[in-house]
Amino acid sequence: MYSVESYNPTWTERFEVIKKLLESVFNEQAVAIEHVGSTAVPNMRAKPVIDVLVVVDKMQQFEDEKEKMVQVGYEWTENYIAPNTLLFYKNEESSNQRFENIHICERDSASVSQFLDIRNFLRLNSEWADKYSTLKEKLQAKYPNDYVAYREGKQDFLNQLRILVNVWKENSE
Length: 173
Prior knowledge:
Blueprint: H1 10-26, E1 30-36, E2 50-56, H2 63-71, E3 75-78, E4 86-91, E5 98-106, H3 110-124, H4 126-142, H5 147-172
Parallel strand pairs: 2-5
Antiparallel strand pairs: 1-2, 3-4, 4-5
Helix pairs in contact: 3-5, 4-5
């Protein structure tokens, strides 16, 4: 089960709370901590899952950090979005629905660029954020109990968006 909701300004507040936790866990190892994903784009519809990107110079085992994150209720998995990445996530106990994703990625990785470039593009191009929001609404209505179909339904749009974002980025530099 999943939901797609109207933009909620409390998503930014939730990110700030998570950021403070991550600063205390990763200390100087965190080169940057960024709010990414749809909840980071004002006025965009999104699943109420706060996505956070922690940029590090070099991936490592992060054993102490994993232990600290587990102690405050997170689970973790490696290589979830791409090789050489780490994901911490938290689910609501009552529904087992995910509500936080914390992606640990190396500074110069394609994942970092993709997270930040797509977020920045959507923040600056509200017509594309609106198109994406509309697609999410339609897919949720069509597949209310099938998250896999919802994700698959977004794939063509996301592929097109990635191409557009790459062109935009090249022209911005």
